[in-house]
Amino acid sequence: xxxxxxxxxxxxxxxxxxxxxxxxxxxxxxxxxxxxxxxxxxxxxxxxxxxxxxxxxxxxxxxxxxxxxxxxxxxxxxxxxxxxxxxxxxxxxxxxxxxxxxxxxxxxxxxxxxxxxxxxxxxxxxxxxxxxxxxxxxxxxxxxxxxxxxxxxxxxxxxxxxxxxxxxxxxxxxxxxxxxxxxxxxxxxxxxxxxxxxxxxxxxxxxxxxxxxxxxxxxxxxxxxxxxxxxxxxxxxxxxxxxxxxxxxxxxxxxxxxxxxxxxxxxxxxxxxxxxxxxx
Amino acid sequence: xxxxxxxxxxxxxxxxxxxxxxxxxxxxxxxxxxxxxxxxxxxxxxxxxxxxxxxxxxxxxxxxxxxxxxxxxxxxxxxxxxxxxxxxxxxxxxxxxxxxxxxxxxxxxxxxxxxxxxxxxxxxxxxxxxxxxxxxxxxxxxxxxxxxxxxxxxxxxxxxxxxxxxxxxxxxxxxxxxxxxxxxxxxxxxxxxxxxxxxxxxxxxxxxxxxxxxxxxxxxxxxxxxxxxxxxxxxxxxxxxxxxxxxxxxxxxxxxxxxxxxxxxxxxxxxxx
Lengths: 280, 273
Description:
Chain A: It is found in: Cytoplasm, Cytosol; Nucleus. By secondary structure, chain A is an alpha+beta fold.
């Protein structure tokens, strides 16, 4: 197994740092999958994270000036590494104005992802800061649990409103209730609702866009005013929203009635999918 | 506020209380300042709304929000009273965020149908509407400090800025705060008696911070310092333009806005001398 890659472009480096910050907010532990064309950050829907799953994908060509990898074997040319997400984002924090960033899979008593940051000092001489991030190599037999989730046909698909407003509202709702209902229809309406013995609060977002219906999809015969809803853990929604520090390029919300909500985001050229299951 | 004006005038007849504000921020700030217990009593007349929070008959805080502050204010009956969870009310009033985003205003419309009905709040910011339905409870007896000016012995009006500093520096190792008012020096003095010794803070009557001073008779009052904690928080939260009116006859003090705005009143029980 081999992996080495280099980033020299400042904008690419900043973007990569933002992605790692987002992953650190979304998943304490995540799996980094390295393949010849892509990097993925994965969280699979285990009980440990309450059934939430995440699939983040980026095209390595858009970030790295150099990229070499050799997977586990010729037929299985991939590497799966488990790491503590925050370790990566913290290491990248030091790379803010770096001249170059190198990532390498190493073995220092245990497998590590070594990040080397070349920084320019005032005197134009450079110095190198190295971080060794411990990783766990995930064996081939466990790869089947880490594949791209299948997205079921949603009952309703709608573009999200400004995330900042959603986050402010959900943050306050969390003080009142542990769970919330997210519902939307094909007429551009999305509601967030909480209800306790003491109080009911509903926030109505209107005039949102719905993506054009895919022909022959189940949604075609659907009454556009009818709401599809899911009852979810409010903290999971808040965690997802808190991870979006920047407004995404595109943000789609897919609801499968009473089953789950799927967020499909695009941050420039990085895609993020986040699945929150319905409360049982 | 196009979305809120969709509620037509006829609808108002079913409500005992209807109140609208273009900007909910000031209401939120004043209610937050008196939020030292979970529950509050609301009392509305055609003159405005009074919100009362009380602690074991020792401290009572009142916020008076006059009818004139609202863009729309209608009370159908003589008076409307209910008890409500203030913590939940504050969370609802700040549903779009605790700190205001510059350039955005959150509008509020508050409706109450009467005894047994929940309090309805309609909040709008940037086209997004949040509807809150908060259950109300049976109003409880609150101590009535209907305070007559004939009983006032001494009176001082201070800019809250100066008092805020003093209160934030109070020696909390002292059990009591002693307030002295006298026709001669020191005029107005705050004293504490803590582990390190006693400390006195004097405000001479001709100080810039003293707006008015009336004192015929020396009075020394002592207050349990722990009871004052919520009021010092109120001073910190209150806007810069509040004045403090201290009426030593009853141990009451008012926080009064310099310009037209809601009024806050605190009553703190005197210790036995």
